[in-house]
Write a structure and sequence with these properties.
It is a single chain. Helices cover 7% and strands 37% of the residues. The protein has 131 residues and is mostly beta strands. It has two domains: 81 residues, no CATH class; 35 residues, no CATH class. Strand 1 and strand 2 form a beta hairpin. The protein has a three-stranded antiparallel beta sheet, covered by helices on one side. The protein has one helix and eleven strands.
């Protein structure tokens, strides 16, 4: 079983379908492109953050999901940017906070980012204890 991301004209993923494995002479990316009238690209369910969960070669950086974009220059799927200040790391195919995470502690860490144009701008990791 293979999965294919269907892209709009701006290289945004608008659908992900289950399709045929590419073990035959048929170019399934082209076939699904013809059927949908949109670009169809294979995506690997086992690839996340440029790592293959079974230790194989990662494929296109991430498993595509609706809302992801496709970077044709680097041949990778990019998840939506979680916060305006985060930066893209191509080697890990993931967004990273501009500030390193502190003590891992036992609780819930979350990112806090507010509008830098407003007084009291805060950006960074925050901690909530389990209690």
């Amino acid at each position: 079983m293979a999965h294919y991301a269907i892209l709009d004209d701006n290289n945004l993923v608008i659908n992900v379908i289950t399709g045929r494995d590419e073990e035959s002479d048929v170019d399934w990316e082209q076939e699904y492109s013809n059927i949908t009238g949109k670009t169809a690209l294979r995506t690997s369910f086992n690839t996340v953050n440029n790592q293959h969960r079974n230790g194989k070669e990662p494929f296109r950086g991430n498993f595509a999901s609706i809302g992801y974009s496709y970077d044709s220059t680097n041949n990778v799927f990019i998840p939506p940017k979680p916060y305006p200040s985060w930066v893209w790391n191509l080697s890990t195919c993931s967004w990273e906070a501009p500030v390193a995470h502190g003590d891992k502690g036992e609780g819930i860490w979350y990112w806090l980012e507010t509008d830098p144009e407003k007084e009291g701008y805060v950006q960074g990791w925050n901690f909530s204890s389990k209690e």
